[in-house]
Design a protein that fits this description.
Length: 174
């Protein structure tokens, strides 16, 4: 399927709480494919949530293995419906970007280790233990499902920075 356009802030769909998906059928699997295709088509993108495509459903795709220096032990492509954060531990302040806030990056404090549970496009339950950058990416995508953007997570205005450069086609940035 062709990639879709990523919705930029301040679109209303980005600030709402996404609704549950429930049972997985052809429509949900098509959404999963759209998320994956659009994520892989967008330079520098390692995750994308359904609201970023204008769909107010609790779903996201994530793949940190596409990074120039992929984190060791990452889970590759993950697509989850109705995901939930089961456990979050540790704390770290790091820079994040967002496809829906393309002109800025932000220093954000997040847990360093997470456990996430959700439903796969095949309808099974998947539980993932993630650490480091991958844990950060899971939290970022979960935030999108609750209408929270990186700009909402900054502690102070000094934690928001103009993006230095955008990725070129085929290049994935951290």
């Amino acid at each position: 399927m062709p990639a879709r356009r990523v919705i930029p802030y301040p679109a209303r769909v980005l600030k709402g709480i996404a609704g549950p998906v429930g049972e997985i059928g052809p429509r949900e699997r098509a959404l999963a494919q759209d998320l994956v295709d659009t994520m892989y088509d967008a330079p520098g993108c390692v995750g994308l949530a359904a609201p970023q495509l204008g769909v107010a459903s609790r779903a996201f795709a994530l793949d940190v293995s596409v990074m120039r220096k992929p984190p060791p032990g990452n889970h590759g492509l993950v697509v989850l419906f109705d995901p939930e954060l089961v456990l979050a531990t540790g704390s770290d302040l790091k820079r994040e970007g967002c496809m829906s806030v393309p002109d800025y990056t932000c220093d954000i404090r997040r847990a360093t280790d997470v456990v996430v549970r959700g439903t796969t496009p095949e309808g099974g339950t998947r539980v993932i233990e993630a650490t480091g950058f991958e844990a950060r990416a899971f939290q970022h995508e979960l935030d999108h499902l609750d209408g929270i953007l990186v700009l909402d997570r900054v502690a102070a205005r000094a934690d928001v920075f103009p993006r230095k450069r955008r990725a070129k086609p085929g290049e994935h940035l951290k």
